[in-house]
Design goal:
By secondary structure, the chain is of the alpha/beta class. It contains 14 helices and 8 strands. It has a 4-stranded parallel β-sheet, sandwiched between helices. It has a 4-stranded parallel β-sheet with strand order 6-5-7-8, sandwiched between helices. The protein is globular. The structure holds ligand L6N33NVT and fe (ii) ion (2 copies). It is a peripheral membrane protein.
């Protein structure tokens, strides 16, 4: 079994004296997400892991290029995290979501209880080996890989699944843990309801007489066009979430889907969120409600990019009515949705451990690990 680095031991928040009295968990649910640096000292290693990941950013001489880019980018990104309180809140929110989800699941799915969540971030602690080590110590036999990205992209969920596959070759070569996968949930009614509720709450902050003129700007992290053109599911699944939310809201306001957080010089999917804000402002739409649609908790791209960076650009352009709907974070409606997704999955997982959609790789995918991952989890 691979050794657990000492630095990782502090993430075993669940192995407290409290938990010594808890019964052995029957079902382990691994919440997989990107992760973020908890403080400024973690920024460099976060970026190094991120730029080393060929599933996210394929680079020539990947290892070397990652070192150079991470070092160069660290001061700028440190400054962004400093402006949002020193670190990413993703771990705090994911822990809270996991704990709340466990409680709901134990009630609504007693046959698979007790449930316990584990966290496997792709680029920050706790990393996949830390989750697997904890699961092994708990004696988990039944495990669910539950992506926390509602919409599937090879660059996000695909990368996390490939990493889980690689790590399991080392951590569980005898395949003692039985796995199944929740790879997307972009139109789950609970997700759609939770986002719709946050939009309604956001709209209520505008005066009643002008409320129906507010443009709802759904903003998702963009993707490089190279990935889009390989056939990545993400753009159409994000659009499907947007449509489901607007249908529930009976299309009460105008809306657009826009894309944020482009990095580097190559072409990315647009329109860019900041350009859209300014463009709509010029056309007389002063009131705009930003809605993060592809990430379920706050992170640097909501707290810094949307709130601070784009907020300032908008003010400078004379746009006074730009606001943002709250992220889902620990909203109980959203937590119920998480639990419902897992419960429904567990009912079907013995016969279908992976979804039909996950079985089909992108038409343009040339990465053999993607096929090995699917073959591994489809047993
Ligand atoms: C659905 C969400 C995300 C997709 C899709 C996504 C794709 C993607 N990202 C990069 C490059 C970077 N992303 C960075 C940070 C970052 N990305 C997401 C989400 C998605 N990324 C989040 C939530 C975060 C921030 C985490 C936090 O701490 O709050 C960064 C690091 C920051 C920076 O250097 O600007 C990079 C780089 C690519 C290339 C990509 C698709 C291929
Ligand atoms: Fe990103
Ligand atoms: Fe792939």
């Amino acid at each position: 079994m691979p050794m657990m680095p000492v630095s990782a031991m502090r993430f075993f928040a669940t192995t407290t004296s409290d938990n010594l009295h808890k019964p052995k968990p029957k079902t382990g649910i691994v919440l997989m997400n990107l992760g973020g640096p908890a403080n400024e000292d973690e920024v460099h290693d976060f970026l190094l892991r991120l730029f080393s990941d060929g599933d996210l950013i394929p680079l020539p001489l990947q290892k070397y290029a990652a070192q150079v880019i991470a070092k160069r980018r660290t001061p700028k990104i440190k400054e962004q995290y400093n402006q949002i309180g020193g670190g990413s809140p993703i771990l705090k929110w994911t822990r809270q979501q996991g704990e709340m989800m466990e409680k709901v699941l134990d009630k609504i799915s007693p046959e698979t209880a007790p449930h316990k969540h584990y966290i496997a971030f792709r680029y920050a602690h706790p990393l996949t080996p830390e989750a697997l080590s904890e699961m092994k110590a708990d004696g988990i036999e039944r495990a669910v890989a539950f992506t926390q990205y509602p919409q599937y992209s090879c660059s996000t969920t695909g990368s996390s699944m490939n990493e889980l596959y690689r790590q399991l070759q080392e951590w569980d070569p005898e395949r003692k843990m039985k796995w199944s996968v929740i790879d997307r949930w972009h139109t789950h009614p609970g997700l759609v309801q939770a986002v719709a509720n946050h939009i309604v709450a956001g709209l209520e902050k505008y005066p009643e007489e002008s409320r129906d003129k507010v443009v709802i700007l759904f903003s998702a992290h963009s993707l490089p066009m190279e990935i889009v053109n390989k056939g990545d599911y993400y753009p159409s699944e994000v659009a499907a979430t947007v449509e489901a939310v607007m249908k529930l809201l009976k299309y009460r306001n105008s809306y657009r889907l826009v894309w944020q957080s482009q990095v580097g010089p190559r072409p990315w999917l647009g329109p860019q969120t900041n350009a859209a804000i300014l463009g709509l402002g010029e056309k007389g739409f002063n009131d705009q409600l930003l809605v993060p649609i592809a990430f379920t908790s706050d992170h640097v791209e909501t707290l810094f990019e949307l709130d601070l960076e784009y907020g300032e650009e908008a003010r400078e352009a004379g746009i006074t009515g730009l606001t943002r709907a709250e992220s889902l974070n620990a909203d109980p409606v959203f937590i119920d949705a998480m639990a419902d997704i897992v419960k429904n999955h567990l009912k079907e997982a013995d016969s279908s451990p992976i979804s039909k959609q996950f079985k089909v790789r992108c038409p343009g995918c040339t990465n053999e690990t993607c096929q090995n991952t699917r073959d591994f989890f489809d047993e």
